[in-house]
Amino acid sequence: MEMLSVAEAQRAILANVKSLESETIDLLTALGRVLAEEVVSDIDLPPFDNSSMDGYALQAQAVIDATPDRPARLPVVADIPAGHPSPIELAAGTAARITTGAMLPRGADAIVPVEDTDDEARGASPLPASIGVRRAVKSGDFVRYAGDDVRRGERVLAAGTLLRPAEIALLAAVGQAQVCVVRRPRVALLATGDELVEPDRVPGPGKIRNVNAYATAALVLQYGGVPLPLGIAADRLEAVTAKLESAIEQGADLIVASAGVSVGAYDLVKDAVAAHGAIDLWRVRMRPGKPLAFGNYRGVPFFGLPGNPVSAMLTFEQFVRPVLRVMAGLTQWHKPTIEVIVQEAIDSDGRETYARAWVERVDGQWQARLSGGQGSNMLSSLVRANALVIVPDGVQRLEAGAVARAQMLDWPDSINWV
Ligand code: AMP
Ligand code: MG
Hints:
The structure is a single chain. The chain is an alpha/beta fold. It has seven helices and 28 strands. Helix 1 (6-14) crosses helix 6, helix 3 (212-222) packs parallel to helix 6 and helix 4 crosses helix 5. The longest helix is centred in the C-terminal third of the chain and has 19 residues, at 309-327. The structure holds adenosine monophosphate and magnesium ion (MG).
């Protein structure tokens, strides 16, 4: 049995994983997806010179001496609302009423905002015959020039970019109503154990509810995958094998099982996987969650996570999440981590320990307090946690006041995309 650090195990796992193929989807559904191809703009942004204010387009030269006491008076020769470009060529000493976003008429080189004129009308109103301008403007004032933001032909987004609302906005602006993104990983989820019943039942003597199927499905969704729940397999070789075959039939990109991979008498998962694939049982120097199995079933990468729910979830965060992010096309897969001051001592057995904690900013410092009992079955302290404080490999105790790193559980490298 190999003995690996968390980082070594992550490296060994990711050596087996690459980005999935692309698919083309509607831009409206692309939040949280990852671009499979670079995107080039088909137009300048803005596409044409336009006004950044409601006001009057003119030649700056014509109002060079204008002041509040001695306004310059200009005839108004055109009305140019947004979306309705005017064919006029503005003559020196004339003005055109213009709204925000409307195309600058030829001949004009500046805008005077309506607030700096004697036009008191607001909203739809008749075009005044002339306008008094109360201040001077420079050539270019309140004009947004074509291509200021983006040039036609410019690469605006690289392949591998995570699509946040900002990227969705830019994609709309450059005409990508359909986008080519990396396909979402399909993750088959298998719970094993004779003791398990589904959550809609009251567990009888010796039984417990199947927590891991729901916990891992939620994590798969959170990290951009499609969960394929396989249900519960009893502790029999044929039952586990039937579920694994169902994962293959459903086109799983990854299979994640929980429980059944330690050295207990009924731990059959590894035998079932090994029959048509390969499996290594690793002792990762991590707490919670020492036993971790990784391999493949009929060529599909396979994880065997520990059975205890908190162990299953925290090993998922450290090992399965990076695989999902890489499969989904991202190169950055690290969990956001900050430096915190621990407010109480945290003990460890020397394995890299992920302690459930509540982190908050107090007096300009990030402070961490344990969020409750740290047993690997104890969900209540995970519910009360917003972070995992890391006691490094080889360290037996962090004293109160020590500086440590904390993974922030709710600072997403992604959000829930569904
Ligand atoms: P095992 O890895 O089979 O030895 O299981 C370790 C612990 O995790 C035992 O207490 C199991 O009852 C528990 N466990 C296993 N699978 C689940 C599950 N799907 N939901 C909740 N607890 C589980
Ligand atoms: Mg079991």
